[in-house]
Design brief:
The chain is mostly helical and about 160 residues long. The protein has a domain of about 90 residues. The chain contains 7 helices and no strands. Helix 5 runs antiparallel to helix 6. It is elongated, with a radius of gyration of 30 Å.
Length: about 160
């Protein structure tokens, strides 16, 4: 009976040591475990990992954003080719201006005010390109964009 117990204890200890060794970089406490890079990270590039986590998130290109808007806007308003190009150019310019406003060293309330003025000007320019039927559809589209309906999944 004691032999079976000692075999079980030995097997348990052997598996535990193997697990601990794997967690601490396979080199005990010195080489890549506790000592050099903190508690068992064992990575030589941990300094590089920290640098990457502090970077700003990657900016989405303006053209990609405008493309996504136009994919939704074109069928909703039944735009022709000329209207599509003109509205895309207006939106591109507007988004670039928003980026400039956000990068300025002004307080947040001034930035919000400037973006609101820019938004109104952009909307006015877009509406000028639309016919009466499209203007009605655009108003509905704008309201839905500002106040999206909650889906059943969110309840």
């Amino acid at each position: 009976m004691k032999i079976v117990q000692s075999l079980l204890v030995s097997a348990f200890m052997l598996l535990s040591i193997n697990t601990i060794s794997a967690q601490y970089g396979n080199s005990g406490y010195g080489g890549g475990g506790y000592g050099r890079n903190g508690y068992g990270s064992g990575r030589m590039n941990s300094g590089m990992d920290q640098g990457r986590s502090q970077e700003k998130p990657k900016e989405i290109p303006v053209e990609e954003t405008v493309g996504k808007i136009m994919v939704r806007l074109k069928p909703a308003l039944v735009l022709d080719e000329l209207q599509e190009i003109a509205i895309a150019n207006i939106l591109t310019e507007s988004i670039k201006q928003q980026g400039v406003i956000l990068k300025q060293e002004t307080n947040q309330s001034d930035q919000i005010k400037n973006i609101q003025i820019l938004s109104e000007n952009t909307e006015r320019k877009v509406v000028e390109l639309l016919n009466d039927d499209q203007k009605e559809k655009y108003k509905i589209f704008s309201q839905e964009s500002k106040n999206p309906k909650k889906s059943k999944k969110n309840r």
